[in-house]
Amino acid sequence: MGRDLVDIGPDESTLDALRRAVGTRRRKWLLAGTLLLGLTAAVALSAAGQPGDRTLDAMADPVQSLMSVAVPLIGILLAHDLRHAPRTTRLTPTLLAGVLVAAAVGVFGTLACVVALALVPSGTASDPWRHAGTIALGGVLVQVVAVLVGIGLGLLLRSTVLAFLGTIVLPLGCWAVLGAVDVLRPAQALTPYASVRHLLSGRMDAAAWAQWCAVLLIWGVGLTALGASRRRRSTPETGSARPQ
Fold first, then answer.
1. CA–CA dist 23, 33 (Å, integer)
2. pTM
3. What pLDDT, on a 0 to 100 scale, did the predictor assign at position 244?
4. Which among 42, 51, 136, 215 could disulfide-bond with 116, CB atoms 3.0 to 4.6 Å apart, if both were Cys?
5. So what's the pLDDT on residue 241?
6. Could you give the angle at which helices 56-81 and 192-201 cross, rounded to 10 degrees?
C-alpha cells in the first residue's frame, strides 16, 4: 500500500479536513468501496435469508461490521497527512472530519438495510423493525469508534499497512485472549467487538451503554491521545518534507 498524502494548510478547518478525506482518487475509491460493501451485504442478506431471519438487527450486525473493517483506513490516511504538517497544526479538524465521515457511513449502512428489508419480495419476520432507533444510532457509533481507532493507530504507526492490520488484530486479538482466560473473560466487555454486538442488537440497557462509553474512552479517546502525544514529540515545528 503506497503513500497517499494530502497537504494540510496552516489554518485548516473541519471542511478542509473533510475534503482531505476524499482528496485523492484512492480515497474516493476507498469510501465508495466501503459503501458498496455495505450495500452488497444488505442485498445479499435480504435475498438469501429465511423470512424469520429478515429483521433489521439481523442485517445491521453483519453490514455495519463489514464496513467497520474499512472505515479505520479512512482515519489512518487522515492521520498520516498530519505527519508532514507543522506540529502546531490542530488535530481537532481531523478528528471531526473522521467522525462525520464515519457517521455518514453508519447512516448509509442503516438505510441500505432498511431499503433491502422493505423491498424483499418473499416476506420478513413478524416484527422486523424492533429496536430500529437504537440500531440506527448503534450503526453510527460503531463506525465512529472504528474511525477513531484508525486515527489513533495512524498517529502511532508510520506504516499504513501495519496501522490497518492493527485496527483488526488488536481489537479482535484482545477479545480472543481475554475470552481464553476465565478470570479475564468479563473484560471482553471492554473490547469493540463486544460492544458492537450489543449496539447492533438494539438491546441496550444502562450497563451496555456504560460498556460502550468505556470502549469509546479506551479505544477511541485513549489511542488518539497516545497518538497525539507521539506526534507532538516526533513532528518538527515546521513540519517535515513530503515524500516524493
1. 15
2. 0.89
3. 36
4. 42
5. 46
6. 140
